[in-house]
Design a protein that fits this description.
The protein contains six helices and four strands. The protein has 141 residues and is mostly helical.
Protein backbone atom coordinates (compact mmCIF):
# COMPACT_ATOMS: atom_id res chain seq x y z
CA UNK A 1 0.00 0.00 0.00
CA UNK A 2 1.03 3.56 -0.70
CA UNK A 3 -0.09 5.95 2.03
CA UNK A 4 0.08 9.66 1.33
CA UNK A 5 -0.42 12.73 3.48
CA UNK A 6 3.14 13.81 4.02
CA UNK A 7 6.28 11.72 3.64
CA UNK A 8 7.71 10.08 0.54
CA UNK A 9 4.44 10.17 -1.42
CA UNK A 10 3.34 13.66 -0.36
CA UNK A 11 3.26 14.84 -3.98
CA UNK A 12 -0.15 13.15 -4.28
CA UNK A 13 -1.64 15.38 -1.58
CA UNK A 14 -3.56 18.49 -2.58
CA UNK A 15 -1.69 20.26 0.20
CA UNK A 16 1.72 19.55 -1.38
CA UNK A 17 3.67 22.49 -2.79
CA UNK A 18 3.04 22.00 -6.49
CA UNK A 19 1.61 24.99 -8.30
CA UNK A 20 -0.81 24.26 -11.10
CA UNK A 21 -2.16 26.21 -14.02
CA UNK A 22 -5.94 26.19 -14.04
CA UNK A 23 -8.08 28.15 -16.49
CA UNK A 24 -5.00 30.06 -17.64
CA UNK A 25 -4.15 31.15 -14.11
CA UNK A 26 -1.38 30.00 -11.79
CA UNK A 27 -2.53 28.55 -8.46
CA UNK A 28 -0.30 27.78 -5.48
CA UNK A 29 -1.68 24.26 -4.89
CA UNK A 30 -4.35 21.92 -6.18
CA UNK A 31 -6.17 22.46 -2.86
CA UNK A 32 -6.51 26.16 -3.70
CA UNK A 33 -8.12 25.23 -7.01
CA UNK A 34 -10.45 22.64 -5.51
CA UNK A 35 -11.68 24.97 -2.79
CA UNK A 36 -12.22 27.84 -5.23
CA UNK A 37 -14.19 25.59 -7.59
CA UNK A 38 -16.90 25.28 -4.95
CA UNK A 39 -17.96 28.89 -5.54
CA UNK A 40 -19.28 31.18 -8.23
CA UNK A 41 -18.60 34.39 -6.25
CA UNK A 42 -15.41 35.89 -7.71
CA UNK A 43 -14.52 37.64 -4.44
CA UNK A 44 -14.50 34.35 -2.56
CA UNK A 45 -12.53 32.64 -5.33
CA UNK A 46 -10.00 35.47 -5.30
CA UNK A 47 -9.65 35.32 -1.52
CA UNK A 48 -8.98 31.59 -1.73
CA UNK A 49 -6.52 32.02 -4.61
CA UNK A 50 -4.49 34.68 -2.83
CA UNK A 51 -4.12 32.91 0.50
CA UNK A 52 -0.64 31.68 1.41
CA UNK A 53 -1.33 28.01 2.19
CA UNK A 54 -3.53 25.09 1.22
CA UNK A 55 -4.75 24.90 4.80
CA UNK A 56 -5.84 28.55 4.69
CA UNK A 57 -7.59 27.95 1.36
CA UNK A 58 -9.62 25.19 2.99
CA UNK A 59 -10.42 27.35 6.03
CA UNK A 60 -11.64 30.22 3.85
CA UNK A 61 -13.86 27.84 1.88
CA UNK A 62 -15.26 26.51 5.15
CA UNK A 63 -15.99 30.08 6.25
CA UNK A 64 -18.22 30.54 3.18
CA UNK A 65 -19.74 27.04 3.11
CA UNK A 66 -23.24 28.54 3.10
CA UNK A 67 -22.41 30.05 -0.32
CA UNK A 68 -21.21 26.90 -2.08
CA UNK A 69 -22.74 26.75 -5.54
CA UNK A 70 -25.85 24.69 -6.09
CA UNK A 71 -25.28 21.26 -7.54
CA UNK A 72 -22.03 20.74 -5.62
CA UNK A 73 -22.80 17.08 -4.97
CA UNK A 74 -20.50 14.06 -4.78
CA UNK A 75 -20.59 13.53 -8.55
CA UNK A 76 -19.51 17.12 -9.21
CA UNK A 77 -16.84 17.02 -6.48
CA UNK A 78 -15.35 13.83 -7.93
CA UNK A 79 -15.38 15.16 -11.49
CA UNK A 80 -13.66 18.42 -10.51
CA UNK A 81 -11.10 16.65 -8.34
CA UNK A 82 -10.18 14.29 -11.16
CA UNK A 83 -9.74 17.23 -13.55
CA UNK A 84 -7.51 19.02 -11.02
CA UNK A 85 -5.39 15.96 -10.31
CA UNK A 86 -5.10 15.27 -14.03
CA UNK A 87 -3.83 18.84 -14.57
CA UNK A 88 -1.34 18.47 -11.71
CA UNK A 89 -0.10 15.17 -13.12
CA UNK A 90 0.28 16.58 -16.64
CA UNK A 91 2.12 19.67 -15.42
CA UNK A 92 4.63 17.95 -13.14
CA UNK A 93 6.79 15.18 -14.67
CA UNK A 94 8.14 14.38 -11.20
CA UNK A 95 4.65 13.44 -10.02
CA UNK A 96 4.10 11.30 -13.10
CA UNK A 97 7.36 9.47 -12.32
CA UNK A 98 6.34 8.99 -8.66
CA UNK A 99 2.92 7.71 -9.69
CA UNK A 100 4.46 5.09 -11.98
CA UNK A 101 6.82 4.07 -9.13
CA UNK A 102 3.77 2.95 -7.13
CA UNK A 103 3.39 -0.03 -9.47
CA UNK A 104 0.10 -1.76 -8.86
CA UNK A 105 -0.06 -0.99 -5.14
CA UNK A 106 -3.16 0.53 -3.63
CA UNK A 107 -2.86 4.30 -3.15
CA UNK A 108 -4.55 5.62 -0.02
CA UNK A 109 -5.00 9.12 1.33
CA UNK A 110 -3.87 8.51 4.90
CA UNK A 111 -6.35 10.89 6.49
CA UNK A 112 -8.02 9.82 9.71
CA UNK A 113 -10.35 12.82 9.49
CA UNK A 114 -11.64 12.36 5.96
CA UNK A 115 -13.90 9.39 5.24
CA UNK A 116 -14.75 10.62 1.72
CA UNK A 117 -11.35 11.53 0.21
CA UNK A 118 -9.28 9.36 2.55
CA UNK A 119 -9.67 6.12 4.45
CA UNK A 120 -10.84 7.68 7.69
CA UNK A 121 -10.03 6.86 11.28
CA UNK A 122 -10.94 3.16 11.06
CA UNK A 123 -9.49 2.67 7.56
CA UNK A 124 -12.95 1.96 6.15
CA UNK A 125 -13.31 5.24 4.26
CA UNK A 126 -14.13 5.66 0.60
CA UNK A 127 -10.61 6.86 -0.37
CA UNK A 128 -11.78 8.65 -3.50
CA UNK A 129 -8.58 10.70 -3.67
CA UNK A 130 -6.49 7.52 -3.84
CA UNK A 131 -8.89 5.96 -6.33
CA UNK A 132 -8.48 8.91 -8.69
CA UNK A 133 -4.69 8.57 -8.55
CA UNK A 134 -4.96 4.83 -9.29
CA UNK A 135 -7.30 5.50 -12.23
CA UNK A 136 -4.85 8.00 -13.71
CA UNK A 137 -1.93 5.61 -13.10
CA UNK A 138 -3.77 2.96 -15.11
CA UNK A 139 -4.29 5.46 -17.95
CA UNK A 140 -0.60 6.46 -18.17
CA UNK A 141 0.93 3.09 -17.26
Amino acid sequence: KILFLGGRWNCFSNFSSYAISWNNESWMTSEHVYQAEKFTDEKIKSEIKSTKSAYDAKMIANKYKDQIKSGWDDEKRLKIMEMIIRAKLEQHPHIRKKLLETGDREIIENSKDDFFWGWGENHTGLNYHGKIWMKLREEIG
